[in-house]
Amino acid sequence: MKSLLCIILLYSSFLFSQEDKEYLSKRDTLIEKGRQAYFDNNLPLLKTITKQVDLLYQKTNDSILLAKYFHFKALQSKLTYTNDSAFYYYHLSKDISKKINDSLAVGRRLLSLAILQKEAKDFLGSEVSLIEALQYLEPINSSVYLEIVYNNLGIVSEELRQQKEALSNYNKAIIHNKENKNNGGYLYIINNLGFFYQNQNQHKKAITYFNKGLSQDSVKEKFPIQYALLLENLAFSNYSLGRKENVLRQYEEVLLIREKLNDLSNLSMLHINISNYYKDLNKTKKAQHHSNEALKYAKQTHNNKKWLEALKNLSTLTTGEKSKQYLEEYITLNDSLFQNERRLKNQFAKIRYETDKKEKENVVLKTENQQKQAEILYHKQQKTIGWLAAAIGLLLFGFSVMFYFQRRKKLLYQAQLQQVQVREHERKQIAKSLHDEVAGDLRLLHRKLEKSNLLEEAQKLDAVKENVRNLSHQLSSVSFNKVSFKNQIINLVSDYFEPDFKIKLNGLQNYNWTTVDNSIKRLLYLSTRESIQNCKKYAKASKIIINFSVHKKYVHLDIIDDGIGFDTNISKKGIGLQNLQERIEELNGTLTINSEVGKGTQTDIQIPLNGWTNKNTFS
């Protein structure tokens, strides 16, 4: 009997293992088909496989399938050039992979996010995502993806004008490439290194890298895409050095390869180069032909950069109405792309903040639940002790007294906040009157003066009108009903952020701002805006650090800049700072400004949540 039972158990375990193997094989085959459909640009097939992945997940609750479902949704968005949706789905896929500790998948999704940010010219965001990817890929020593991450870090560092970091990242990519023995990846890195020096007009040094790549064994047959890229860049550098004898032949060879491979994206770049070659030789018709070809391929592949270059070339290669048409299309597209890039940056930032917020909320809820369970256990144990009843009575009395005083203090502060709200309403009404009535009347009067040829008076009146408009904007209130406080601060920082005027934001996402009164949030917003404007306009700063924090019963806003600074014993506060200090005093807050000439300025603002604080200081 025992031997028969052992045989039955062994047979059952064999059946289970066979079922597991069959399921894993089915799942992995389905996932591979989805990936291949994306690489083949087969959107209908990818959509079908995505539905199959979802159905299989509904049956099995396999989290890997759920992560892949969102991954494939992101790939669908990429094929339809809806990068904001792709960014959103990549984030969902990444978060699920985090929960199941799939470090490789997390690293790969972060890499995909970084590439989307790079394409949207959000280079700082891309750098952050790539560095985060390293945190997941380095512990598992995934050399294949570490090579790609460092290669992209090199590109992003170049865009951020971090030349040393760019070279360091490319060299790290080569180190990991040696572990992979991936010749195709090595050619991309070598090309990027050559392109790095090409961008700095060091064409002789760039040529050494392009030749190094082209000298690899059977590179044309084994890696035609990389071969074409290296040959095109070699031709460009030779042409830039005045070595023009083989340039056209090399460009034509690259053209044949790319047409054969149907490499539409890179064809637009090649036709731009050929067009510029003919333009320099004053062969206008041929230059026009290749610019038109570049425009065609750029539109097909949504290659915005080459699209703009082709339009710009055509505006200079044509004359009359046609030239004007190309130029107008160039200006319209350029403005549209700028707005779209800005929208994508904001959208990416919001998605990041929202997903991070949800993660933190889940952690907080889990911690609170554990604390509640501990408290329940504690109270059950304490019930057995008789003397606790008297202590509880005393505590209740103490809490009652405390509640009375706290309630009284809260009512006083609410009354004070209502007064502030009334004053804000008055400011808003005044601002509206200034903008709609006074500015409108001045505008009519200005036109009458112009018609009467009183130009000097009209010019002076126009200056008065602008002052009235500026005053109305300064007096206007800020609402957090439609756009949250956090997103308004993010938008404010995004509006002022520039490569030579960097703003770092800390602590904003660490607090639930919906619990803070709107008057306090309005003051924090206006304080941030006033400080940024002062740093940009007067302090000549290149970097600002903005720190939000909530400690005990106070909200803190600290703003540090690296500007020229000033002597606080001599300098007087301007109108903007005076208005800001008055607003802070209305909420019983404190304003402290510390500055030295040549050492920047630090502005500290502290606002009580309950209405009590010390006197303002200016030191």
Task: Give an overview in words.
This protein is 75% helix and 6% strand. It is mainly alpha-helical. Among the domains are: 395-477; 485-608, 2-Layer Sandwich (Heat Shock Protein 90). The protein has a five-stranded mixed sheet with strand order 1-2-3-5-4, covered by helices on one side. α12 packs antiparallel against α13 (247-261). The radius of gyration is 32 Å and the shape is globular. The relative contact order is 0.04. Mean pLDDT is 81; it is low at 612-619.
Q: Mind sketching the topology for me?
A:
Blueprint: H1 2-39, H2 43-60, H3 63-79, H4 83-99, H5 103-119, H6 123-137, H7 143-159, H8 163-180, H9 183-199, H10 203-214, H11 219-222, H12 224-240, H13 247-261, H14 264-280, H15 284-301, H16 304-317, H17 320-382, H18 388-451, H19 455-475, H20 485-496, E1 502-506, H21 518-539, E2 543-551, E3 554-561, H22 575-586, E4 590-595, E5 601-608
Parallel strand pairs: 1-2
Antiparallel strand pairs: 2-3, 3-5, 4-5
Helix pairs in contact: 1-2, 1-3, 2-3, 3-4, 4-5, 4-17, 5-6, 5-7, 6-7, 7-8, 7-9, 8-9, 9-10, 9-12, 10-12, 12-13, 12-14, 13-14, 14-15, 14-16, 15-16, 16-17, 17-20, 18-19, 20-21, 21-22
List keywords for this structure.
619 residues, mainly alpha, Heat Shock Protein 90, five-stranded mixed β-sheet, 5 strands, globular, disordered C terminus
The fourth-level CATH homologous superfamily of the domain at 485-608 is Histidine kinase-like ATPase, C-terminal domain
Task: Please summarize the sheet with the most strands.
Answer: 5 strands, mixed
- Determine the structural class based on helices, strands and strand pairing: mainly alpha
Inertia-based shape = globular
Unreliably modeled segments:
612-619
**Tally of helical runs:** 22
Distance between the termini: 93 Å
Task: Please write the CATH class name of the domain at 485-608.
Answer: Alpha Beta
- pLDDT averaged over residues: 81
Written as H for each helix and E for each strand, in order along the chain, the element string is: HHHHHHHHHHHHHHHHHHHHEHEEHEE
**CATH architecture assignment name of the domain at 485-608:** 2-Layer Sandwich
Radius of gyration: 32 Å
In the CATH hierarchy, the third-tier topology of the domain at 485-608 is known as: Heat Shock Protein 90
What proportion of the residues is helical, as a percent range? over 70%
Task: Assess the beta-strand content as a share of residues.
Answer: 5-15%
Total E-strand runs: 5
How are the strands ordered across the major sheet? 1-2-3-5-4
